[in-house]
Amino acid sequence: MSSDFIYIRPSILRRLARKGHYPDVDLFSGFGKLYGGWILPIDRTGTIRTPARSQLIFPLPVFRQFTKSYEDVCNDRAREILMQAETLNVSLYVLYSGGIDSTAVIVSLLKNASPSQKERIIVLLSHESIIENPNFYEDHIKHNLRVDSSNLFPYLLGGTDMIVSGENNDQVMGSDKAGRLIARYGAEIIHKPYHRDLFTEFWGTTFKENSRATTFYVDMFEKLMHAAPMQISTNFEYLWWINFALKWQAVFAYTVLFTAPRNAHKITADYLHNRFLSFYNTDEFQLWSMNNLDKRIKDSWKTYKWVTKDLIYAFNRDAEYRDHKMKRGSRANITRQQLPYEALALDGTLVSNRDPIEYYNPDNSFVIL
Q1: What distance in Å separates the CA atoms of residue 155 and residue 1, rounded to the nearest whole number?
Q2: Helix axes 23-35, 211-226, angle to 10 degrees
Q3: Secondary-structure class of domain 54-325 per CATH
Q4: How far apart are CA 351 and CA 265, in angstroms?
């Protein structure tokens, strides 16, 4: 088995801190307080080294001018995935929550699928998926595509068919932390120039009396910001860049840990490359993102991901969804039925029941002398 990992559940590392003196792991756990306990940050700029023995598999593309529209990139990606399913002669399962990202995936596939390619598509959904976008379900899924329960997801992982998710569009488009920033300081704050004192206060509410942790994370995120290949100027761009640089790999890999045990041995590096796909996990989406910092949000939280919502509206003409749909978390709907593995190794092996020290990297940026 590989000695490095694509993803490790951060809670496994925190066991070290309970067993001994690991102040670096204690400090590292603060990231989970800020961004969610399941997120393992893996820095794509090479600025930050964490206490997790992880290895980057999705490096940042080399920054260059990129002129394709978001819709063009979606169409290209849809055609690529449809052709891949046809070449492999397999079904194409699409994880559908009813949210903005997965709805845009279905829209892009429907716009570009031939009749025979359309027959390969199977939409994995739940009752919550239908409620979240009822008009789209009635008009474009119910009588047009095959459907099945999203509860099957753990049992489909490792199979011969392809699975496509809507992951990584959050990283393309911005950060849900912008919603919290708006709720606290008002919508006008997002387009104001980045200000260190603002985020010292904002992050400090999470760490409460621990000013040392607050200062550490403010400093660390500033180093990350300065490592960007383009100018990061506003508070919104700062939050986007943290999300884009640190969370890309985790959101791709996390759900693989919920593979049903009977299929775990079928998860390989080849499987992850060819049959378990995030729709938005391409260099072109990333280049679009890095070249279009003004196309994420307008003047309110309701306009977050407006480019994606406009793409959906052009297809289904649902103005209510375009104008009022807000981001909602949906991952828990497909992961709560299965206990996760501890880690995903570089060769695709799913790992559990290891001594936490096997996941630990002592040469990390959280060691403070």
Answers
A1: 23
A2: 70
A3: alpha beta
A4: 10
Rounded to 5°, the CA angle 92-123-167 comes to 80
How is 7-29 classified by DSSP, letter by letter?
Answer: EE-HHHHHHHHHHS--HHHHHHH
pLDDT average, residue stretch 137-166 = 97
Are 51 and 25 spatial neighbours (Cβ–Cβ below 8 Å)? Answer: yes
Residue 181: predicted pLDDT: 97
C-beta neighbour count of 103 within 10 angstroms: 29
Structural element, H or E, at residue 149:
strand 146-149
Q: Which amino acid is at 174?
A: G
59: left (phi over 0), alpha (psi -120 to 50) or beta: beta
Q: Which residue has the higher pLDDT, 17 or 278?
A: 278
Residue 352 to residue 180: CA distance in whole angstroms = 35
> What are the residue ranges spanned by the domains of the chain?
54-325
Can you tell me whether residue 147 is helix, strand or coil?
A: strand
Enumerate the H helices of 208-339 as residue ranges: 211-226, 235-246, 248-253, 269-274, 283-291, 306-316, 319-324, 332-335
CA 334 to chain centre: 15
**What is the C-alpha separation between 319 and 287, in angstroms, rounded?**
29
pLDDT in tens, 254-296: 999 999 999 999 999 999 999 999 999 999 999 999 999 999 9
- Phi-psi sector, 305: left (phi>0), alpha (psi -120 to 50), beta: left
Is-contact 77 284, C-beta < 8 A? yes
Strands 350-351 and 343-345, bridge-based pairing? antiparallel
| 238: number of Cβ within 10 Å | 27
More confident call, 20 vs 344: 344
